[in-house]
């Protein structure tokens, strides 16, 4: 017999129990510069680099392309256009519409037209400048209004309805209409789009891609290369941020790298320069929404009509599901009464807008919050009172506009607790008093809730697989379909596996996500990767635990179902054995120590024809209270204090969950305040670098920032009764927008609901201040 | 030859592209990939590294090291000469993480981790400062680092914790030795074929004469963007970092004489001591790593319409000292900016220094900046006012504005119309408001609309008038805390 590893030793580090604040699995490597991103990997000696040449107009027809000078440029190895793609030329992820390289039609500004392979990054980029591409420009459709006027949509509309909303509206004493123009958002992941392709034997291809969806990258590469899926392996260890921007839109660059690698039989890397990354990849969809809401005299909603218009850019990408999610969340936590929600997917000559944390949810929910503010101002009430009044009920008024009953609703209690812990009422009085005596600086306060549906609304994506290996020293590797982009997914999965076997976290290695280990995976998206992959990993653990339990029970003549895995020991009644030792014995005893686990989410269904169903397994809840100060001379503002109470079910890792909540909040605050996407009249993005597009900086973090977890296990059978946490906290930032409006409203003694289209830049706040002052003068 | 300590190794560069950035050098030549490229434009901080240089301690013979965080993506290699370049890989002591690294781990301050090495380096530079930082100081030190994941709270806490419980790290322990090694380097000549580093005005004049097309740079934070963003190549560049006259700061009897090539990081404390009212401009001038490279001379020579400091120089009646190697002359700030990106500087000339006269303690000085974000943003409008009020009457008002015209500009009529008026009377406010309404016709751009810019001119004027006319009842006029904004109120 070959020798087993010496002395499996017990690890002295603490237990890997779920529920503890373990540090991020890569934390030490990250702080010391050892954590490797794709651009940091050792390169093959003859690696070459790709740059792309892009369109300088938003809409038009290519009349001629002369790339001769590009080919002659220093260091250039190869140049390709759409004609050089061996297989599919369209990489649309769900529906067609996304050309890998432009054919003759130009659909958006900065659309890739050709690609260059050269011996260095700089030489490749410089070569692209030498192209002579003549484009006959055509009139571009650049706004939602234009798209609607031209009936220009990427997908058909969708509708949800309940009752006779028109009749209820007409019969209600209070009727309010509003309109919102909601800006998009650049992902600004710190690591830009990047991919490295390494050709292997014959037509096989190994690709490293900074992607939230390795399986889709694998599929698209196979399609563009015209080979079978099993020839392509995609490997993804970690992303330097994703936020949705690498769900579909990492594929284009990976495909280009793979084509060059295949043609030239060399390793190829593509890394987008920041400005091109910002101009050539999709963003959070800008939306233009309208609402009509009617209430009784107390402000209780009777009827609602909401029109949702997503600016999808030139192609469907994921826009169908994104506009759907905006529609699913136009209620936020409130019962809409008799209602009608329509959602349109407008086609414009912009880059194809894509997934971004919240996935349309934020752009729907903010309409609900706008309605609450509008009702409150109309009735002269505190917006919080109106919000509480309109929350979903327990026994009545408890069904969403898409016919899903809201069970286990935590919002009323959660809001009450936050209202008390943040001294809302006392501060409300103080702020009103402050504003009376402060002519220039005004303060605002708002407490807003979040209810966010968890599950992919495309049902088939709600599945996951995991692959677990235990080695003969008791150490194990877990591989699953989810990708790590900083959110702590791998840490949580490691904790789940360690917890199942009662071993320290150091026993568990989470390896890079690879399409040859777990196939046909779903994207890491919709907040659900821990829910799905955690359950799949647990399932793999249970399979091996069952084998070990049976093996041990046979040895000590006990019952397998009574075997316990705890503290690196396996216990059965009075018998016990060190975990490592049992593993060695099991190996000798020819017990399989490898298993794959699988999970699919139960209970979910949705019928698009009727606009009815239960698209979500459960809801995650939260609430936040923000206090702001605004300068009425300049529109500058400061978020002074934020209090958050958020529901993550039974937390798998409180530190990681709080990190998601704080980070999501600040990112949401950026979307609603300083992050302004601006396109010029030709359709070119002009806020196209971090000098002109301002995400929150460190000084924007509120000095008082209290975040607490709502202590209650998920009522549904999720992994250890935890809840998803990736996206829901993003929308906690709605309270910042409402607080800014509250501060502006104070100028009119809270009589008007100011128009403040997000992002509320200082200039927009100032304009709203001016309008409030003008209103006041009119009254005088 | 450029010689420096790369972490612990004496390293020399004989031949390199003039426009090779430090980031490229680290990642591609040295394969030190801990330092990341986030934007290659000095806006995100993922590429932050630290330079340590020897400073002579005035009351001791010891040589101390001063540590400054810089953005490696907008730095050319000449900046390294005679210094220790410290990258994230070098921070741990054996297997033990540096206290700032350990603290960030414990506070869960990294998520995706891509910005993390840059944050670590800014934290490290702060850790090496002598004073114990408060939250404001931490925010200043980390103002040039963007994080998209955490929301910053754990990073602030981790930094405070590490810097408030400092222990002697390996850098402190080997400080004397490192300083000695650096002093030995400093005696060597430093030009390379492509990167010229003159050490006297005659050498500089000769270099300019020999390569008339070569750009001259101090901090390179602007010039490097032409390489990294516009993909331009520069065969020859002339660095001003070793020019003695351009790198001295002299407190004269009547004002500050600031060498044109000195980075803001080295003049900040003197500027703040004498002009505390400029704190907002200095605090919001780019971010710490850029301030550690960018020079006042560069800021003036670039003649950006926004410019940050030029409005202050106009309002304070600064004088620009220029030289061509043969002859020196002075130009008033008000006569320096001619047209969009065009100055009174002749091709053969360079800026040697900038003289800022002290203001009387009774002068009412305010510097304001309006932008989308407080940290590291470019002004939509910048306004600096300097009013001399004696016995309640206006003697003189000087001003400077950025973001509202093709050049940084002042409005002399403000002075002529307000002289002799009672400052506290609302008439004074109204005269100024009406003048400023008509003074400029700014443009719409990505930062602000024309209308907003125009309104801001008059509203900042209102703020100035309000703030300098407050008697007993204080009206709040700011939403951000400004450390030294009240400094001169005691005089007023």
Automatic annotation (TrEMBL), chain A:
<dbReference type="InterPro" id="IPR036856">
    <property type="entry name" value="Ald_Oxase/Xan_DH_a/b_sf"/>
</dbReference>
<comment type="similarity">
    <text>Belongs to the xanthine dehydrogenase family.</text>
</comment>
<dbReference type="InterPro" id="IPR016208">
    <property type="entry name" value="Ald_Oxase/xanthine_DH-like"/>
</dbReference>
<dbReference type="Pfam" id="PF02738">
    <property type="entry name" value="MoCoBD_1"/>
</dbReference>
<dbReference type="Pfam" id="PF01315">
    <property type="entry name" value="Ald_Xan_dh_C"/>
</dbReference>
<feature type="domain" description="Aldehyde oxidase/xanthine dehydrogenase a/b hammerhead">
    <location>
        <begin position="32"/>
        <end position="139"/>
    </location>
</feature>
<dbReference type="GO" id="GO:0004854">
    <property type="term" value="F:xanthine dehydrogenase activity"/>
</dbReference>
<keyword id="KW-0411">Iron-sulfur</keyword>
<dbReference type="Pfam" id="PF20256">
    <property type="entry name" value="MoCoBD_2"/>
</dbReference>
<dbReference type="InterPro" id="IPR014309">
    <property type="entry name" value="Xanthine_DH_Mopterin-bd_su"/>
</dbReference>
<keyword id="KW-0500">Molybdenum</keyword>
<keyword id="KW-0408">Iron</keyword>
<dbReference type="GO" id="GO:0005506">
    <property type="term" value="F:iron ion binding"/>
</dbReference>
<dbReference type="InterPro" id="IPR000674">
    <property type="entry name" value="Ald_Oxase/Xan_DH_a/b"/>
</dbReference>
<feature type="region of interest" description="Disordered">
    <location>
        <begin position="1"/>
        <end position="29"/>
    </location>
</feature>
<protein>
    <submittedName>
        <fullName>Xanthine dehydrogenase large subunit</fullName>
        <ecNumber>1.17.1.4</ecNumber>
    </submittedName>
</protein>
<keyword id="KW-0560">Oxidoreductase</keyword>
<keyword id="KW-0479">Metal-binding</keyword>
<dbReference type="GO" id="GO:0051537">
    <property type="term" value="F:2 iron, 2 sulfur cluster binding"/>
</dbReference>
<dbReference type="GO" id="GO:0030151">
    <property type="term" value="F:molybdenum ion binding"/>
</dbReference>
<keyword id="KW-0001">2Fe-2S</keyword>
<dbReference type="InterPro" id="IPR037165">
    <property type="entry name" value="AldOxase/xan_DH_Mopterin-bd_sf"/>
</dbReference>
TrEMBL record, chain B:
<dbReference type="InterPro" id="IPR002346">
    <property type="entry name" value="Mopterin_DH_FAD-bd"/>
</dbReference>
<feature type="domain" description="2Fe-2S ferredoxin-type">
    <location>
        <begin position="1"/>
        <end position="91"/>
    </location>
</feature>
<dbReference type="Pfam" id="PF00941">
    <property type="entry name" value="FAD_binding_5"/>
</dbReference>
<dbReference type="GO" id="GO:0004854">
    <property type="term" value="F:xanthine dehydrogenase activity"/>
</dbReference>
<dbReference type="InterPro" id="IPR014307">
    <property type="entry name" value="Xanthine_DH_ssu"/>
</dbReference>
<dbReference type="GO" id="GO:0051537">
    <property type="term" value="F:2 iron, 2 sulfur cluster binding"/>
</dbReference>
<dbReference type="InterPro" id="IPR012175">
    <property type="entry name" value="Xanth_DH_ssu_bac"/>
</dbReference>
<dbReference type="InterPro" id="IPR036010">
    <property type="entry name" value="2Fe-2S_ferredoxin-like_sf"/>
</dbReference>
<dbReference type="InterPro" id="IPR006058">
    <property type="entry name" value="2Fe2S_fd_BS"/>
</dbReference>
<keyword id="KW-0408">Iron</keyword>
<dbReference type="InterPro" id="IPR016166">
    <property type="entry name" value="FAD-bd_PCMH"/>
</dbReference>
<dbReference type="GO" id="GO:0005506">
    <property type="term" value="F:iron ion binding"/>
</dbReference>
<protein>
    <submittedName>
        <fullName>Xanthine dehydrogenase small subunit</fullName>
        <ecNumber>1.17.1.4</ecNumber>
    </submittedName>
</protein>
<keyword id="KW-0274">FAD</keyword>
<dbReference type="Pfam" id="PF01799">
    <property type="entry name" value="Fer2_2"/>
</dbReference>
<dbReference type="InterPro" id="IPR016167">
    <property type="entry name" value="FAD-bd_PCMH_sub1"/>
</dbReference>
<keyword id="KW-0285">Flavoprotein</keyword>
<dbReference type="InterPro" id="IPR036318">
    <property type="entry name" value="FAD-bd_PCMH-like_sf"/>
</dbReference>
<dbReference type="GO" id="GO:0071949">
    <property type="term" value="F:FAD binding"/>
</dbReference>
<dbReference type="InterPro" id="IPR036884">
    <property type="entry name" value="2Fe-2S-bd_dom_sf"/>
</dbReference>
<dbReference type="InterPro" id="IPR002888">
    <property type="entry name" value="2Fe-2S-bd"/>
</dbReference>
<dbReference type="InterPro" id="IPR001041">
    <property type="entry name" value="2Fe-2S_ferredoxin-type"/>
</dbReference>
